[in-house]
Amino acid sequence: MLSLNAPHEIVQRIASLYPKxxxxxxxxxxxxxxxxAYGDSNFRDSFNAASATYVDGISVKxxxxxxxxxxxxxxxxxxxPALIKAMTxxxxxxxxxxxxxxxxxIAKRAGDRLSHDIGVEIVFVAHGYQADWQSCLARLTAFxxxxxxxxLGMPLEAVWCRAHAHELPKSVVLTCGGxxxxxxxxxxxxxxxxxxxxxxxxxxxxxxxxxxxxRYIHGIATLAMLCSRAALRRALD
Length: 237
What we know:
Elements: E1 2-3, H1 7-17, E2 25-30, H2 32-37, H3 41-48, E3 52-55, H4 58-66, H5 76-91, E4 96-101, H6 106-118, E5 121-126, H7 133-142, E6 147-151, H8 156-163, E7 172-175, H9 179-183, H10 192-196, H11 200-207, H12 209-236
Parallel strand pairs: 1-3, 2-3, 2-7, 4-5, 4-6, 6-7
Helix pairs in contact: 1-5, 3-8, 4-12, 11-12
């Protein structure tokens, strides 16, 4: 697993892996849901099997710093456009992009937005509630996408990438969680000032407490426990 810290570094390193890859390049984000799920060995093995990971959550940044590993936070909403641009420059043509996830219609609207805003060619879309993933992924592979954007929510999307690695095309597979709903205009991203203050989690909590409160309450408790362990480990070293 390639674990990177600086935003520019991760974009350039992932772009450099394509199109020389012999297997799917799974790119996963670490955030508060990842911390909540890390006790699950299936998720942990799936996350560790990724080709590259990056920090997309202030909770993980705090934990990393408490353990003595300073990292930078990079939201998927910022990483993905930069990565697409870098890959486009590398291959010298419009990228072929597939979008999978969400309820019926979400992937289509997200793809339309990507096509309009970034100029990619959307070659395949599918919702995230497939009864037969084998059939869906066979159709996906036939379109030979350069990038597959997967929005199934963490931890499911990490486990899904590992479970279907042998069926996925040899492309960059970028999990995106809630970014898919932002692209589809189902949700709004926080204002720029909130992003700069790294308080996007608080914005989501205030906007939709019913859906996010449990995640963040659990996450804060998990973060406190893990930071305490990291601090104790450093003190004993």
